[in-house]
Amino acid sequence: xxxxxxxxxxxxxxxxxxxxxFNKNADPKELDDYTEEVMTKHVSGRxxxxxxxxxxxxxxLMRKPSxxxxxKFKERFDKINIKNKLNLQLIP
Length: 92
Known about the structure:
Blueprint: H1 28-41, E1 46-48, H2 56-61, H3 68-83, E2 89-91
Parallel strand pairs: 1-2
Protein name: YgiQ family radical SAM protein
């Protein structure tokens, strides 16, 4: 809609899909570009991500990706945050 200036993510995102080590079919540059666009245009201050647990054995039972992907995403998040001087927070 033309009157909408910004739309924000309120419920969270799948961080593992934005990590090239997990999403092997995606182009890492495109993942970075997409993450940067989300952070600069669709996050109001805090970005919620959805790690269901921090224990890899529990995540495996749940058929969820390893918590290590959260750490990899956080590294990318921090780089983009510093580059764009955003001062955003990542909330697990």
